[in-house]
């Protein structure tokens, strides 16, 4: 917990976080089911986005995270429907399977850089979906229906409220872990591995780059698998058409719009864009258009993402001040 | 305030505002809301737009209805699903929980599994435009009605007659590589097998990726088996046109059979030219079956500036039928209305008199039974294709 | 097995033709990556715009084919330069932002396309209808035409890149931008030229493939996925690699379908892609 000691304004931060958590726990019973639905989807997307963030910090752009999410979702769904395994175990199994695949594939894919990595994970995600589609044991193109909700002391959590708390708990735990990954020495080391050159530099001072990268990748995919399983049990359905390439792209957009400068960036991006997307329910292409325009505006005008807004505003006002002063003579300088 | 605190407050405010659904505006006129939970964008948009517009035309025609002691107007609320399961779940959640919509038309067999539990839990009355027979309309889902002819129904009713009429001896199947295609492949094979005694064989089946444009690979092997008839299942206009074109390029000279609701003759003949001839389409009317059918077609053309997609008429009929039953029952309670609906008939359906069936095939009387046409494309126009219809129950 | 031999030959022929179509579509993507190391996700949408332009100018507007093509080339150049100046230039060097920006552009074009062009499937009549029968094999004329165009473009591209001054400048920038700039190469102009050219290739591909299939605003998705596949196999940035990979994929799909069925053939192509990624990630002829 060394990182805690370094933060001078920890007290305030902790209070704020606690307030948010209390709100997230106490308010929902007063909320309508639809609001709970939005909350669940937002929480799930936040975890996905933050998991992706860990990898993007290392300089790897993944357009295939949906593949690991799908692995987690299918594992849990299969265990629950075909083998009657407890859903809680299914969640963990989902995470574990995704992690194992991440470890195996990481050995090959992490050696690739830049667009090669992106294309390889994209290919992997497509293969995963293709295999699930091809074989009836995985449900084939129809997917797996009637995926059950977990049992909690004798009741099945079929209601929105009940399942919301499951999602909240999983999200809080996942985000806590992912925050550690991003902010501790581990996280800063990952930053150092961002390009091939800096990675070589890091290795030269004794950092086992491959091990860090693999660990980060596996952890990221574990949480994707875990939340993917939860996602599948929320929908009570998994199919090859749920976790698609477009889904992976959405996650990348959440990260970029929110900003890669801090852990809170992807969270901001997910919350904003998911909630916004829910409001644009009448025509699908307007939603895509809005996402795309927001993305382009952010990239061109505010490359640091939304969380960079305060700093960017400050820089902007400074520049204005500097250039609005009357021209100074050399003597005054 | 720390950056974190400021950010969190801002995020919370934004989330609350953005995510908080707006309470529906108070109407001077009370509204009977019906949802169009359909794709209105993306590749399946034609189906969705047909439904949306059919519902809107029906809403105009119903005008003001009296339910109990109040007057209501039908209001159509559209939720775009882009034919995605996750978005359909979101749409239904919003419709049922936030907007108070308890009736609606939902398109898509592929998107129904995740919403069936919600439908059961809330009693939403789902007028489904979906294939996949038994999985959707069965005794466990009393408020789910299929308002289009199902594949089971089509093939049980028609396949044998069509084969006999064109004198085909070798039948092949080319379908999309998804549950619809795989299911229908089995159905067709089973039907053809019943004709073994008459010398008819099922010779080949191939599957293509839905959305593919090049059917060459799938067609090559299929055509080598020299079929007389290629059953192309429920593939949309663009696909059937390309299938026909590419099959003829490879030397196929037989007939095609198709069972999609939305097929445009002009588009097919534009894309495939003469290759489009001899496509036999079930569900397509070459001649308007009723006055109402032509009137609706004209109204749609005037109002929206283009020809009506095939789903329009069935959506119109379903909306009016339900509005009728709701009025007669005097309540919006979906369970009561569902029971009343299942026992009722609707003689004013644009296709002809409609009722419900499917007890034997599905275990519940939730499948619409109505006249199903067959047409054959000749020279860019649909001509009636006269076949004796079998029985479906 | 008798049934199979003529079928295999037909399959091979169709496979080669389809493969050349893939090459035609993937060329623009290869070029832009080869020179600027930008993966242009909007490639499929430019292809779609090219096809739509033919529909609106030639079919609806009645403009003859040659002026239509000229207009398409001009419009793509303008669009390419605009995109390069407006978006790519400010992000030069930041490959992550560039990729994501091109995703954004592709989404914008696609969404606007659905709104503007509508959902009805459109079609462009064949420039050269009919079939050619050659040694028992049936070859649609319009595909032969597209193949011919592809061959001309590939040859033209080679000439441009390896035999002209502009091409020399492009290769110089690709190899070592700083040194090239020090030696007087105008990097900005090379960038604009490359993007414009890539867009032209995409749009022209769209124009010539348009009559073969039908048109709708979502038609850009399949070409870009296919192009990615080809580029992974052939190697990013290598024209020869793209050509070989395109032909390979086309033939594998076709012959594989004849031998094992269409579904299996689709799977075979995937397996090949994975094999390449695992054993030779740079692609068969790629530059690393």
Write structural notes for this entry:
The complex is a heterotrimer of chains A (333), B (393) and C (288). With 333 residues, chain A is mainly α. Chain A is 72% helix and 2% strand. Chain A has a domain at 29-245. Chain A contains 14 helices and 4 strands. Chain B has 14 helices and 15 strands. In chain B, strand 9, helix 9 (237-249) and strand 10 form a beta-alpha-beta unit. The radius of gyration of chain B is 22 Å and the shape is globular. Chain C has one domain (5-279). In chain C, strands 1-2 form a two-stranded antiparallel sheet. In chain C, a hairpin with a 2-residue loop joins strand 1 (131-134) and strand 2 (137-140). Classes of the chains: A mainly alpha (333), B alpha/beta (393), C mainly alpha (288). Chains in contact: A-B, A-C, B-C. Chains A and C meet through helix 6, helix 11 and helix 13 of A and helix 4, helix 9 and helix 11 of C.
Itemize the secondary structure elements and their pairings.
The complex is a heterotrimer of chains A (333), B (393) and C (288).
Chain A: H1 2-6, H2 10-26, H3 33-57, H4 65-82, H5 87-109, H6 114-134, E1 144-145, E2 151-152, E3 155-156, H7 160-183, H8 185-192, H9 196-204, H10 209-235, E4 237-238, H11 245-258, H12 264-279, H13 284-301, H14 309-324
Antiparallel strand pairs in A: 1-4, 2-3
Helix pairs in contact in A: 3-7, 3-10, 3-11, 3-12, 4-5, 4-6, 4-10, 5-10, 7-8, 7-10, 11-12
Chain B: H1 3-19, E1 30-38, H2 45-62, E2 64-67, E3 70-80, H3 85-98, E4 103-107, H4 112-122, E5 125-129, H5 133-136, E6 144-146, H6 151-166, E7 170-176, H7 179-193, E8 201-208, H8 216-224, E9 229-231, H9 237-249, E10 255-258, H10 265-272, E11 279-282, H11 291-304, H12 312-329, H13 334-343, E12 355-357, H14 359-362, E13 367-369, E14 374-378, E15 381-384
Parallel strand pairs in B: 1-3, 1-4, 4-5, 5-6, 7-8, 7-9, 9-10, 10-11
Antiparallel strand pairs in B: 2-3, 11-14, 12-13, 14-15
Helix pairs in contact in B: 2-12, 3-4, 6-7, 9-10, 12-13
Chain C: H1 4-36, H2 43-60, H3 65-88, H4 95-117, E1 131-134, E2 137-140, H5 141-163, H6 165-175, H7 177-182, H8 187-209, H9 221-234, H10 239-260, H11 262-279
Antiparallel strand pairs in C: 1-2
């Amino acid at each position: 917990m060394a990182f805690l000691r370094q933060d001078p304004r920890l007290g305030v931060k902790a209070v704020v976080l606690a307030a948010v958590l209390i709100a997230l726990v106490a308010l929902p019973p007063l909320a309508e089911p639809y609001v709970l639905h939005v909350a669940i989807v937002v929480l799930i997307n936040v975890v996905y986005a933050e998991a992706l963030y860990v990898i993007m910090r290392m300089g790897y752009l993944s357009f295939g995270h949906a593949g690991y999410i799908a692995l987690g979702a299918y594992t849990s769904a299969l265990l629950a429907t075909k083998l009657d395994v407890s859903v809680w175990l299914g969640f963990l199994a989902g995470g574990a399977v995704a992690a194992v695949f991440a470890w195996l594939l990481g050995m090959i894919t992490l050696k690739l850089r830049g667009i090669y990595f992106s294309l390889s994970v994209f290919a992997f995600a497509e293969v995963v979906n293709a295999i699930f589609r091809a074989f009836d044991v995985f449900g084939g193109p129809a997917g797996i229906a009637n995926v059950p909700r977990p049992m909690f002391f004798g009741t099945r959590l079929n209601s929105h409220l009940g399942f919301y708390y499951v999602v909240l708990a999983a999200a809080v735990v996942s985000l806590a872990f992912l925050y550690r990954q991003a902010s501790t020495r581990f996280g800063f080391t990952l930053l150092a591995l961002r390009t091939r050159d800096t990675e070589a530099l890091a290795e030269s001072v004794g950092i086992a780059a491959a091990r860090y990268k693999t660990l980060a990748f596996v952890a990221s995919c574990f949480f994707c698998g875990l939340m993917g399983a939860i996602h599948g049990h929320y929908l009570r359905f998994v199919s090859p058409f749920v976790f698609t390439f477009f889904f992976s792209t959405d996650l990348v957009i959440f990260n970029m719009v929110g900003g890669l400068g801090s852990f809170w960036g992807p969270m901001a991006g997910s919350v904003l864009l998911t909630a916004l997307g829910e409001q644009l329910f009448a025509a699908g292409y307007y939603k895509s258009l809005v996402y795309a325009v927001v993305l382009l505006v952010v990239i061109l005008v505010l490359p640091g993402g939304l969380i960079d807004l305060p700093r960017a505003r400050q820089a902007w006002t400074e520049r204005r001040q500097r250039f609005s002063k009357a021209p100074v003579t050399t003597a005054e300088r | 305030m720390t950056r974190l605190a400021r950010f969190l407050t801002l995020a919370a405010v934004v989330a609350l505002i953005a995510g908080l659904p707006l309470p529906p505006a108070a109407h001077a006129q009370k509204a009977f809301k019906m949802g169009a939970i359909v794709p209105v964008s993306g590749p399946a948009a034609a189906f969705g737009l047909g439904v949306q517009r059919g519902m809107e035309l029906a809403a105009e025609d119903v005008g003001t209805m009296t339910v109990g002691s109040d007057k209501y107007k039908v209001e159509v609320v559209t939720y775009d699903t882009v034919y995605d399961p996750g978005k359909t779940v979101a749409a239904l959640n919003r419709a049922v929980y936030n907007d108070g919509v308890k009736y609606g038309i939902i398109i898509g067999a592929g998107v129904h599994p995740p919403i069936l539990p919600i439908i059961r839990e809330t009693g939403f009355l789902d007028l489904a435009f979906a294939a996949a027979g038994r999985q959707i309309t069965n005794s466990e889902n009393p408020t789910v009605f299929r308002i289009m002819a199902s594949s089971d129904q089509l093939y049980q009713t028609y396949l044998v007659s069509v084969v006999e009429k064109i004198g085909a001896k070798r039948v092949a199947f080319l379908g999309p590589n998804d549950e619809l295609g795989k299911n229908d492949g089995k159905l067709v094979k089973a039907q053809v097998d019943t004709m073994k005694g008459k010398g008819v064989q099922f010779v080949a089946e191939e599957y293509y990726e839905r959305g593919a444009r090049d059917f060459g690979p799938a067609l090559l092997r299929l055509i080598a088996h020299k079929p007389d008839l290629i059953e192309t299942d429920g593939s949309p206009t663009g696909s059937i046109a390309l299938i026909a074109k590419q099959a003829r390029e490879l030397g196929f000279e037989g007939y095609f059979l198709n069972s999609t609701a939305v097929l445009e003759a002009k588009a097919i003949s534009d894309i495939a030219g003469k290759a489009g001839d001899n496509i036999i389409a079930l569900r397509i009317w070459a001649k308007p079956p009723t006055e109402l059918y032509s009137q609706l077609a004209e109204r749609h053309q005037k109002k929206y500036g283009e020809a009506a997609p095939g789903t329009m008429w069935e959506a119109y009929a379903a909306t009016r039928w339900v509005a009728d039953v709701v009025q007669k029952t005097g309540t919006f309670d979906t369970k009561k209305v569902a029971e009343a609906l299942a026992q009722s008939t609707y003689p004013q359906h644009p296709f002809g008199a409609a009722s419900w069936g499917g007890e034997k095939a599905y275990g519940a009387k939730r499948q619409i039974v109505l006249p199903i046409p067959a047409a054959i494309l000749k020279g860019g126009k649909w001509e009636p294709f006269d076949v004796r219809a079998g029985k479906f129950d | 097995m008798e049934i199979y031999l003529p079928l295999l030959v037909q399959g091979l022929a169709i496979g080669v033709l389809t493969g050349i179509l893939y090459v035609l579509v993937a060329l623009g993507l290869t070029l832009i990556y080869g020179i600027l190391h930008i993966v242009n996700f909007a490639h499929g949408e430019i292809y779609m715009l090219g096809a739509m332009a033919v529909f609106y100018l030639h079919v609806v507007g009645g403009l003859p084919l040659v002026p239509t093509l000229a207009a398409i080339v001009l419009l793509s150049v303008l669009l390419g330069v605009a995109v390069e100046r407006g978006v790519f230039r400010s992000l030069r060097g930041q490959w992550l932002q560039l990729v994501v920006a091109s995703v954004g552009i592709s989404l914008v074009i696609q969404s606007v396309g659905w709104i503007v062009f509508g959902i009805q499937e459109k079609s462009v009549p064949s420039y050269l209808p009919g079939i050619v029968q050659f040694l028992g094999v049936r070859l649609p004329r319009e595909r032969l035409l597209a193949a011919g165009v592809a061959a001309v473009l590939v040859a033209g591209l080679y000439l441009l890149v390896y035999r002209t001054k502009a091409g020399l400048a492009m290769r110089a920038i690709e190899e070592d931008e700083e040194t090239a700039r020090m030696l007087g190469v105008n990097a900005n102009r090379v960038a604009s030229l490359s993007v414009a050219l890539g867009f032209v290739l995409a749009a022209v591909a769209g124009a010539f493939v348009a009559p073969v299939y039908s048109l709708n605003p979502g038609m850009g998705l399949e070409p870009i996925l296919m192009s990615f596949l080809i580029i992974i196999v052939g190697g990013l940035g290598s024209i020869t690699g793209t050509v070989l990979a395109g032909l390979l994929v086309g033939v594998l799909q076709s012959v594989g379908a004849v031998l094992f069925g269409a579904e299996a053939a689709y799977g075979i192509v995937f397996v090949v892609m994975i094999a390449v990624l695992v054993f030779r990630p740079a692609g068969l002829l790629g530059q690393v």
